[in-house]
Specification:
67% helix; mainly alpha; three-stranded antiparallel β-sheet; 6% strand; 305 residues
């Protein structure tokens, strides 16, 4: 065993708490050493956590545009519940309605009509109406896929705010074009593809227009955010603490070579000194109160005697 301070060898049978070479208390010196390293490690780790929180705030609630973007993004997904179009299949004692919208698709999947649409494509009476619904449905699926990807990127955008904002803008533009395409496809199917007869009817919804409008707003918002920059507000020295933490992990720097605190701004220094002074005042107050209690107790004992 070696002394943690002077490095001298200590025999295993030497059970004294102090080193015979330098006189340091081995137990307390080791505790102080570990506490100091833990304090340095906590300072660097807390800096990384604060930087992540700062990026999250900047992306989601850091500005009015960020808040509006969050509301519009959720709204663009909710707008998919509005029907893009709807098709009604009619026969004596039989009638089914298929709606191309999030709610309609879920209902059609539950009653089997969504899978039955493939059979209607081969039928003589329902083939044109089923084809029109299938065309809009395919475009709707592409919009849904784009929105899911956009939502995932948005939730992870705090990792790289500017890069992710650019990706959200591009995906919003694609989803907007697809939404407009779905609305145009519904109009074309209504006017040209699906003939009006007693067996089928094709109705146009405004889900495509709603999705297009909201995605267009998303494109504009993200473009403005890119122009102004999505810049998190970091505490002073936190970026340097993060870089130093990487160097320590790579073995370039050791905790023993660093002071405590490692970095300290004037504000942090003033806060630390105020906390220290407050702690000293509380300790002095407690000590004074303890002495007064002892004096009062001594006086009581003297009066009793």
């Amino acid at each position: 065993m070696k002394c943690p301070k002077c490095g001298a060898d200590i025999p295993f049978y030497d059970l004294k708490p102090n080193c015979k070479h330098c006189g340091v208390n081995i137990l307390y010196f080791t505790q102080d050493y570990e506490l100091e390293r833990d304090a340095k490690r906590a300072e660097l780790d807390n800096a990384v956590t604060r930087m992540v929180i700062a990026r999250i705030k900047a992306v989601f609630i850091g500005s009015l545009l960020a808040i509006i973007r969050m509301i519009v993004l959720v709204g663009s997904i909710c707008a998919m519940m509005i029907p893009f179009c709807s098709v009604t299949f009619k026969l004596p004692f039989y009638e089914e309605k298929f709606s191309v919208g999030l709610i309609g698709i879920i209902q059609s999947f539950g009653n089997g009509l969504l899978l039955g649409l493939l059979k209607f494509l081969k039928s003589t009476l329902f083939s044109k109406a089923a084809l029109g619904a299938a065309i809009v449905l395919v475009i709707f699926a592409l919009i849904a896929l784009a929105d899911v990807v956009m939502l995932i990127i948005y939730l992870l955008s705090f990792l790289k705010p500017d890069k992710m904002t650019k990706m959200i803008r591009n995906i919003s533009a694609i989803a907007g074009v697809l939404s407009l395409g779905a609305q145009i496809a519904a109009v074309v199917c209504k006017t040209s593809v699906v003939p009006a007869n007693e067996y089928t009817s094709f109705a146009i919804g405004f889900g495509g227009i709603a999705c297009f409008a909201l995605h267009l707003v998303l494109v504009i918002i993200n473009a403005k955010m890119l122009r102004s920059g999505v810049e998190p507000v970091y505490r002073e020295f936190d970026p340097k603490r993060k870089e130093l933490r990487k160097k320590i992990k790579n073995g370039e720097v050791d905790y023993d070579d660093l002071p405590l605190p490692i970095f300290e701004s004037e504000e942090e220094y003033e806060t630390r000194m105020k906390e220290f002074e407050q702690a000293m005042e509380e300790e002095a107050s407690e000590e004074l109160e303890s002495q007064l209690q002892k004096m009062a107790k001594a006086e009581e004992e003297a009066d009793t005697q």
